[in-house]
Each structure stands twice: as C-alpha cells, then as structure tokens.
User: What shape does this take?
Amino acid sequence: MEKINTFDIMDDLQNDTLNKKQKINILGLSQKAISQYFQKKGIKEKNVNMRVKQVWSWIYSHGKISFDDMTNLSKDFRFFLNENFNLERPIIVKKQVSLDGTRKYLFKTNKIGEFETVFIPEEDRGTVCLSSQIGCTLNCSFCHTGTQSLVRNLETFEIVGQVLAIKDDLMDWDGKNKHNTKRTISNIVMMGMGEPLYNFDNVKDGIDIIMNNEGLAISRRRITLSTSGVLPNIHRVALEIGCLLAISLHGTTDSVRDLLVPINKKWNIAELMLSLKKYPKLSNSERITFEYVMLSGVNDSLEDAKRLVKLIQGIPSKVNLIPFNPWPGSNYGPSNPEIIEKFAAYLRKAGYSSPVRKPRGDDILAACGQLKSDSVKPKKANALLQI
Ligand code: SF4
Assistant: This one.
C-alpha cells in the first residue's frame, strides 16, 4: 500500500470545498469516477484499478457498510477512505409486509423527502420495483404517485441504495440469501414512483452499477425500465442503458390516453408507435412490454383489444394486463375478471403473450400504481435552510 500524504488530501479537500462533514457518498459512483478521485488524491496510478475493484467488491458483492470491514485493505487506505467518503445507504423509515409476502419500504436519505420501494417474492424470482423520483410531474389519473407533486429526482446513490438496503433486509449477500440458497433478488423493474426518463442520467448510472458484473451483477435482461412515453429519451434506453423497455400504454385512443396518461397530449399514440417501430435492437428475443391497466368501462372493451392489436402490429411485444389496484380517492374501478380474460384471449389469439398480472401487496398499498409518500417540495426558503 502506497503512503498517502494526508496534508495533500486536506489541501484538496479545501480546494473542493469539502470537509469532514461533507464526504462524498461512494455509493452510486462509477468505477471511472472513483478512479479519477483516487488518482487526484495521489494513489499511485498502477494501484488505482485494483483499489477501485476491491472497494466495489466489498460494497456490491459483500454488502459492507463500513470501510473498516474491508479487511483486505491496508489501514492507511481505510483511513483515506474514511476521511474522504461515506457509504450511506437510504434508511428504512418504515417496512410493511403484505399477507402475500410483498414488502413495501419507505426510505429517506440525507436529502429532502421520502420514497417507497417494493420487493415482490415469487416462486422463481424476486423482483425489486425501484423508484426514480419523489412524486411525479405526469399526473396519470389511475396512479397514486401521480397525485403527489414532484419533490425531486432521486440521485444515483439513492437508486442503487434502494437495492442495497433491501438486500440488507433480506440478508441477500455473497450470492446467497439467509437460507444459504441462491440469491433472493433476481429482477429489477423501474416502475415505482416517478418517470425514469425524466431522471435519465441518474437512472442510467444506477442501472449501470446494478447490471455491472463487478457491481450487483443482475443481467440486463432481468431489468425493465417502464416509461409513460417520453419520446426524446426512449431510444436512449436501448442505446445508452441496454435494459428492457416497457411502455405504460393504458389507452388505445388519444382521447382515452389523454385522460389516463396526460403526456399523450405532448406525444400522442401515433408518434409513440412510430418511434417504437424504429426502436433500436428490437427483436423477438427483446420484446417491448406494453403495460395496460384494466379500468372498468374505460379501456376494457373488445373494441379496445382490437385497436390495441392494430396499434402494436409489427412491434415484437407482449402486453401485461394489470387489474386496477384502487387507492384512497381513486376514481376508477377494476374491470371484471371475465372481461379481463376475454381481453387477454383476444390478444393471445392475435399472437401476443398477454399475462394478467396478479395483484401483489395491495393490502399494504404496494401494488402497481399505489405508491406514494407524504413528502412535499419545501418552499425555497426552507430548502435553502436544509442545504
Ligand atoms: S404512472 Fe408513472 S409516470 Fe404516470 S403518474 Fe404514475 S409514476 Fe408518474
């Protein structure tokens, strides 16, 4: 281990307007960013890569929450890490466990606001539904989050940190869970609070770490990002992130979709479909998923099913049918199960896989479209006080 000059570090810290109270959270930093920081702080270039990989391995493979537990690092290096960085995960403020085993977490960090995340255990997989924002700007009328004004975008450490904190809670580290069998979290869906494509850079950086083999090592094919249809950023999901794509469609005419997913007024169904037909790397093995919430008397007729098939013709895709999960104050009702089944049968006959999603965690408001926190954006004066 090279000797680190503490005085140089302190000079740099002053230059960077950093001090002991303002350490950098190393969670969410790419290997490249950490390398640059290490180099800047005087770690010998030939050692930088190895040091970065060691630290990443302790954080993402072994789940360590303290630099002092990184036992193959020298004392000097751990001192350097403690002086400059912290490893703060989001804190679980509240945890609710549904009768069906679904877990809903309310998180906070040292930044403003609280956010929710869900873990859904199934026989063959365990899925974490991540949030990308606190609140949302998009006001989709069937969605509980849509009733909460945007507080802020989540930062990269908060996006990755949701997975880390849930892995802690599930004791899902070192490739094995607490029962010593294969790991519990296998899939990620970016379908919690917020529109991920309005927080593109942080979401991209977070998913990069989640899918990196030296990070959380979850295959890109087990990660799905869902968007309401932010057209300018949709192709970037394939080109810059590389995970799977889902579209919150929910309506087959502009008049209905304008009401359910108001971003449709900006980018309508025809424009959306045109863009999806040109989606990079689209293939039968990497289909787009269309999310379609079934609302009684609103979008669940056979005519809707017929229009839907026409709309998605030529797009390798599947349709997830989601029975509506009511929330306090919602104006919609769930479609009758027989109607959902008829709708699904029509899609299947037309050649589209159309599973009906089983509501999970609805007794604790953890099901699809039910997430919301009490956080509000503080007025400017208050916001400044908290900086
Ligand atoms: S469905 Fe998604 S984009 Fe629409 S309001 Fe809810 S969180 Fe926002």
In short: The first strand starts at residue 24 and ends at 25. The CA atoms of residues 27 and 157 lie 5 Å apart. The two ends are 36 Å apart (CA to CA).
